[in-house]
Amino acid sequence: xxxxxxxxxxxxxxxxxxxxxxxxxxxxxxxxxxxxxxxxxxxxxxxxxxxxxxxxxxxxxxxxxxxxxxxxxxxxxxxxxxxxxxxxxxxxxxxxxxxxxxxxxxxxxxxxxxxxxxxxxxxxxxxxxxxxxxxxxxxxxxxxxxxxxxxxxxxxxxxxxxxxxxxxxxxxxxxxxxxxxxxxxxxxxxxxxxxxxxxxxxxxxxxxxxxxxxxxxxxxxxxxxxxxxxxxxxxxxxxxxxxxxxxxxxxxx
Length: 253
Hints:
The protein has helices at about 30-45, 65-75, 80-95, 110-115, 145-150, 150-160, 165-170, 185-195, 200-215, 215-230, 235-245; strands at about 5-10, 15-20, 50-55, 60, 95-100, 105, 120-125, 125-130, 165, 180. By secondary structure, it is an alpha/beta fold. The protein has a domain at about 5-180: 2-enoyl-CoA Hydratase, Chain A, domain 1 (Alpha-Beta Complex), CATH 3.90.226. The strands form 2 sheets. It has a 6-stranded mixed beta sheet with strand order 1-2-3-5-7-10, with helices on both faces. Helix 1 runs parallel beside helix 3 (about 80-95), helix 4 (about 110-115) crosses helix 5 and helix 5 crosses helix 10.
């Protein structure tokens, strides 16, 4: 398959899925969601491990505001957050081990990709932030996945503070499982074991673990409703579009 927003390669039963929108700071648009979901659907049958990567300096910076403005200009209603939530559900519940390999910045929806992954490996440049409240938005769809990883209060603090979290802090908060200056070598060490696992065994284990939690599916309706609400607010959209044009945040009037 030929993709526009991702790069994909298979090494036996390992799929390397790279988010690749360097011209857009690796932001999330409809095509990226569609293509990631297509790759993960293939992986349900053919992969035991999915390694999710970004660019060396930017893992993923969240929503593509340019696409949001274009959609608004065409008179469209707020885009449904459901495909993105379902993409993260695929990472969290799919019959493979999902490994996020994070280098550089992960912001907003980028943190969603990280939190949805089974294992998170980062290099020492990685940092994590939730900037949504600066624009009157909220990380509604991110939070169920993030709370599952870090617990309620750490996720709550990240959302309210909007401050970047260092990789060392992320490790302490359990958002990251391992980090090193040379994260590639840490990733390879993990893959030496993960690649030998039975796909049937992984699928059974993931089903069991998802049943233990169960919160992701339960949280979905509320998360979608909250995300739709904030992205439909005319004041929020005005602030986002002014930021795109002038670089000024909504409070800088």
